[in-house]
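Hello, quick one for you while I still have it in my head. A protein chain has come my way and I'm curious about its shape. Can you walk me through what the tokens say about the fold? No rush at all, and the record is pasted right below.
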Amino acid sequence: GANPHVWRTLIAAVAGHHGRPSTRDERYFPNDRGAAGVDAVRDIPLILDDILALWPEASLVGLSRSEARQLSWWLSGLTVASDWVGSHPEWFPSVTRSMDLRRYLEQARGRAATAVAAAGLQVAGLKGDAPLFDFVLRPMQIAARDIPLPEGPTLAVIEDETGSGKTEAALILAQRMLAAGKGRGLYVALPTMATADAMFERAEEVMGRLFAGPSLTLAHGRAHLSGRFRDLVGRPTLSDDVTCSSWLADNRHRALLADVGVGTVDQALFSILPVRFSTLYLWGLSSKILIVDEAHEVAGDAYMVELLAALLRAHAAQGGSAILLTATLPLAQRTTLIRAFAEGAGEDWPEDDDRSYPSLSIAGGATCRDFDRKPGPKGVVRVRRLSAASDAIDLLVASAARGAACVWIRNSVDEAIAAAEALRARGIPVSLLHARFVLSDRQRIEAQTLARFGKHGEGRAGHVLVATQVVESSLNLDFDVMVSDLAPMAALIQRAGRLWRYMTERPREHRAVPDPVLYVLSPAPDTVTDQRWLVPVLGRGAWVYPITD
């Protein structure tokens, strides 16, 4: 009953189930049919009549061309997933040719219920609205619990300083969105594999309190190297605990089909890029609340801003909702992302140029910006300049001797290695973490770093970590003394978030130093003579970030 433009669009969506659009269209069909022989010419109408008789009420009447185009993306992804499940020989074994179509349909429906459950695609139910966390909520988390939610696709932007509990606030808000029917699962997107691995461990603890027996996947190119993820795969699905089916873990394209996915943002961006199975990613994401953590890192340049904007536009067009978390997202980028989501949702929201900070904003809806701006338990973080690397080494040696847990964040790997060697020569116990390690070593070192300097770290007193930007985002580390090479303001703010982070576990009186101070290694800013002014102090680290006038 549809017009030709509608059914051609939907047929094209179904025909592209091998990961990319078909190279053929209805213009070739008469030739294909003729080439198949006279039996095909006779049988095709009969087959269509028999299939249509199974669903006599099916109709495309009233479906517009624009609605069909939007539906085609979702339909294509659904068809890919259905094809993969339906092609599994153990779930749908071959049957005799003599079986009646209607009888086969009844049998297949029974098998489908078993197959969907075995594949890990059976949607986990919410456990209700019980609180996810048993600690006293912070101001941003209270705002996430109480802010009114509008109807339809919803975009929330959480802006607060590092270490303020934004992730927990996002999960509280996501729980409310799920209860309001804005999604059936979650995808938490992070900028790097390291931050995704760290978030995966946190999610594994929380998701069992949010869902009843949810499937959880780790989505990035090296997920198979994660011991925590491997231990999760194949856990009995009858348990009420978090699990991941072997079918979901067997193919990286299936990661977004789980109830909950934690991974890198590129996995979500595949849904809007010209790559194979992009529609499968989009379909899997369409039922999720998309949480983009460290949005300022993802939208760090003009290219990535446009990609993230396209993702939000497509997600909203499929009826999805999203939450952006950031400590330092520039106002112009925030406006770009909100406008893109509004376009996808078909809304015309007014521009929001409010500069309040911290802030919880529902695009086109309520906002919460009346936060207590008084310093938290750690007080004001002072900033002091160090003019030479030798001064940084002397400071770290003295601080470690007092029992402080210390970190020096360097801009380049070579400078980090040199700093670690210099500290070891002074007899200081040093760990080194950077992105040049092979992945297995890096994962091992990251685990050791979290065990020593994390929320419940042990053996931290008198130890120094020398690291590059890999500790800047999402790794929940806590240091008493921090030295950082000069970097852009957003990076310095992120790094300072790892200074005196967990005041409940390590209050002021238990710290080895009296106050939190961010020491910045930098030449005097009032003696800039040329673009090489950083080199004498930062060495190769002077060239990592662009130098502007």
